[in-house]
Structures are given as C-alpha cells and as structure tokens.
Amino acid sequence: MSLLWRDRIESLLWRDQIQVFFAPGRVDMVRTFRGIKSRQLPAISKIYEYQQDTAMWKTSLQQLEQMIEKENAASDLKGAELIITLSNHFVRYVVVPPQQEITNSAELLAYANFSMREVFGERVDSWVVSISDEDPYQGTVCAAIARNLYNEFEALASRHRIKLKQIEPYLTAAFDQWCRSFNDKRFWFVVIEPGRLCMILFSNSEWKGIRNQRIVHSIETELLAALEQEVINSGYREPIEQVYLFSPEHPDLDLPIDKGWQFAHLPTEKMPVPLHFPSFSYRS
After folding, report:
1. 82-141: per-residue pLDDT in tens?
2. Quick one: which of 12, 179, 261, 267 is 20 to 30 A from 203 by CA?
C-alpha cells in the first residue's frame, strides 16, 4: 500500500540514507552509509515535551534540524537521501472506494481531493494530498499533510544539501512492513502511538474504512470502542474479527480475548521493526 509524497524512483546505490521517524514529542534518526558494503549506525532518539500552544511539528522540526547538523558535523551529509516516516498525528486519511470508471492517476487524484474535501472541508486547500498505488478493484487510500510542514521538510533538506527522497505516513509504512504475512480475507490493521490510534479495514479484497483519532482516556477502552464503531459502519461482522496491532510504545496493552476480537501483536519474528521506528522508552 505504498503511499508517498515525493518521487518513487529507486535510490542510487551510492547515496547515504537518513531515515527519520517524526512525531510530536520525539524524533528518531538512523543513518546508513551506502556503497559496496553498506553500514547502518545505531538509532538516535530525542524524546521531549512539546509546547501545546504551537504547531505540534515545530519543536520536532527544530530537534530534527539539530540532529542533522550534529550528524553532518561528524560526517558530511551532502547528497544523502532523507526518508521521513510521519506520525499519524500529522496525517489525515480517507478511503476512496473502487472507481473502475477512472482511467488514469490524474483523475484518481482529483477524485481523492474531492473525497477529502467532503470529509474535511476547505482545510484541504492548505494540504498536500497523496494516494496509494492504484487498483480500480481494491480502492485507494488517500492521505494529506499540511503544506507548510511539507515545505519545511523541503527547506531543511535544501539547507543541508540533502535530497528529500520521500515522506510516508506511519500507518502505511508499518502496513507495508508486515502486510505479506496477512492472509486473511478480512482484517483490521491498527497502529497505536502516544495519544493516537489509527486503523484501517480490509475486507473482500477492498479497503473499507479508516479511522485516525486522539486517545484521551484508556487505550484499551478507546481501541475497543473504535473497533466496535467501525465494525458497525462496515455493515458486517465476523464471529471473530482479526486485528493486527502495532504498538511499540505500549508493549503492555491488556486486551480481552473473549469479546469477538482476536489480536495479533506485531512485529513477527521474520519481519522485525525498522530501526528508525519508535520503541518503548521512558521520558527523562
């Protein structure tokens, strides 16, 4: 379900890579030296309190700039590729049902913008919209981020003479990591972060629905309530609904096993967590 902002061209083998996880209150960064023999440095993480009275991304952007400056001072970053996985806090989603009458990407993107506008109104005018890989029979996942955040990423890359290779939402980046192990005809995929849960339903070979909401109270309670609401919205329910759950910052979730939901926790042994993804840690 690749869903990217920027290009989809394969990386040149000799370009170093800077992979970043970008969220409110944390930034994680991993550098990979590319060449005949690639070498990946340990992950660097900055976890902090962000100011509630400013845009959530501003403090994170300052932290990322400092991390890149420090890495550049240690070893020149010129020409490296910057790949950003963006927290679901910064992304808005809709699912576009299968549109077999649409014949090209431009028409599909126009329809995705229309669908976004129906849900979010005029705010879409200040967003940058992207769509997942086309499949007229499966439907499309559409995502949007603030244009000013997108522009700040471009400006940061330009200042440090690196290439902004791609920006990808956390939901789809995580899904792409493990989807090859999903053999179910119907399943839910859920990503939980501090203060947010994001879920998507796949059923009968189609994307059926998506939900991205704040968590205010108990994670367990709000997750179950959101799943129950979305299964009603879907118009159908299996006796046991399969849920694939990725919650690296909440490793001790206590979820029931007797309420019609079967939870499979990720990652799997064969497909570990990407090094730049967040993991459980205590704030200092």
Report:
1. 999 999 999 999 998 887 777 788 888 888 899 999 999 999 999 999 988 766 668 889
2. 267
Cβ within 8 Å of residue 130, ≥6 positions away: 3, 4, 5, 142, 143, 144
